[in-house]
Amino acid sequence: MTNIQNDRLLKVLKGETVDRAPVWLMRQAGRYLPEYLATREKAGSFMGLCQTPELACEVTLQPIERFGFDAAILFSDILTIPDAMGLGLYFTEGEGPQFQRPIRTLDAIQQLPIPDPEQDLRYVMDAVRLIKKSLGNKIPLIGFAGSPWTLASYMIEGKSSRDFINSKALLYAQPEAVQLLLDKLSEAVSLYLRAQITAGADVVMIFDSWGGVLPEDAFLRFGLPSIQKVVDDVKKHAPHIPIISFTKGGGLWLNKIKELAIDGIGIDWTISLAQAREAVGNTKCLQGNLDPTILFTNPRVVQEEVKKILQQNTLQTSHIFNLGHGILPRTPIENVEALVAAIRGE
Q1: Buried b vs exposed e over 81-98: b needs ≥16 C-beta within 10 Å?
Q2: Taking every pair of C-alpha atoms in the chain, what is the biggest distance, in angstroms?
Q3: 30/63 Cα distance (integer angstroms)
Q4: Shortest CA distance to 131 belongs to which of 196, 191, 80?
Q5: Cα separation of 341 and 336, whole Å?
Q6: Other CB atoms closer than 10 Å to residue 232's CB: what's the count?
Q7: How many CB atoms are located within 10 Å of the residue 137 CB?
Q8: Candidate list 7, 70, 77, 120, residue with the active-site label
Q9: Among the options 31, 101, 122, 221, which is catalytic?
């Protein structure tokens, strides 16, 4: 039993009945909120914001105070682990995250350290502790990490990519090097998530943002097994903590993803909730999957599209409402309000 007042999210992840679908949004704390932009300016930089626990806590709570979501998610970045490995993470306006020292050789991979979460990533753990304390017992806190393949692709490319030439070429030419990198990252991600749980996270989520760029054989050989290593290790040490895994573009592999020892499966907008339920069955909770661009229309359209998704779910216990990917900058706030109102039946 949980002592959290609003425990809808925890209940649906355990397969229990709730009065309505819980709702939270990926990147719900972010650039579409004026209060976030003010705090970001105060921090001086994105990494300054992430690395200052008090400010990370402040922006984590902002969308909760404004919209009353059913869960808070730690404000951080999936690339904190590679940064702690010594790759030199920095952000350039309009270009996103980049690394000063990309990893593209077996020798460089062999030299990568495994970060100690309470030392090398202490600022994240301090943020989790502070957020959890600030939330009290109102709603659950979601911790997160990037999947090993997603982190590896960023580390090899040195930045985000449209074609992933360097990471795919290394995978095909030197699979043993990529496997070693994934093994190291699986260990690092496991330790990181376990530390977040110890610090107070009630749920953890794995963001496999770039799993969908892999061909099926590579996903099943490299991508999915590396996630499985993380899931199995976290479940071994914290069996009571629910895990959600989200592979963007992974709709074709739901019949394989469902075999992981996870409690929730995130889906994007390329597959319907009904199709996902058919592929997964009734043993897992589904999370998703409104196209974030719908939030650029108007409140009426937003509410209609939300209701379409809700109507696809005949099992009230099996769905967390979310977007099919992160909320976009400049999203009109009134449309987010309309989304939440539609979930609540207002």
Answers
A1: bbbbbbbebeeeeeeebb
A2: 58
A3: 9
A4: 196
A5: 9
A6: 13
A7: 12
A8: 77
A9: 31
Alpha-carbon Rg for the chain, nearest whole angstrom, is 19
Catalytic residue from among 7, 8, 27, 104: 27
Structure tokens at 100: 């000063």
C-alpha to C-alpha distance for 304 and 281, rounded to whole angstroms = 26
Question: How far is the C-alpha of 232 from the C-alpha of 237, rounded, in Å?
Answer: 9
CA separation for the pair 335, 306 (Å, rounded): 11
Task: State the catalytic residue, choosing from 32, 154, 202, 277.
Answer: 154
Question: Would you say 25 and 323 are in contact if contact means Cβ atoms under 8 Å apart?
Answer: yes
Predicted local confidence at residue 2, as pLDDT? 63
The 10s digit of each residue's pLDDT in 133-188 is 999 999 999 999 999 999 999 999 998 888 999 999 999 999 999 999 999 999 99
Give 331's contacts (C-beta < 8 A, 6+ positions apart). Answer: 32, 292, 295, 296
* Residue pointed to by tokens 């779910």: 313
Dump the DSSP string for 235-302. HHH-TTS-EEEEETT-GGGHHHHTTSS-SEEE--TTS-HHHHHHHH-SSSEEEEEE-GGGGGS-HHHH
Length of the chain as a residue count: 346
What band does 93 get if pLDDT is binned at 50, 70 and 90? confident
Q: Is 27 a catalytic residue?
A: yes
116 catalytic per annotation: no
How is residue 104 written in tokens? 């593209």
Q: How far is CA 327 from the centre of its chain?
A: 12
Indicate which residue of 8, 40, 104, 277 is catalytic: 40
Q: Would you call 192 a catalytic residue per the annotation?
A: no
Domains of the chain: residue spans and CATH: 8-343 (3.20.20.210)
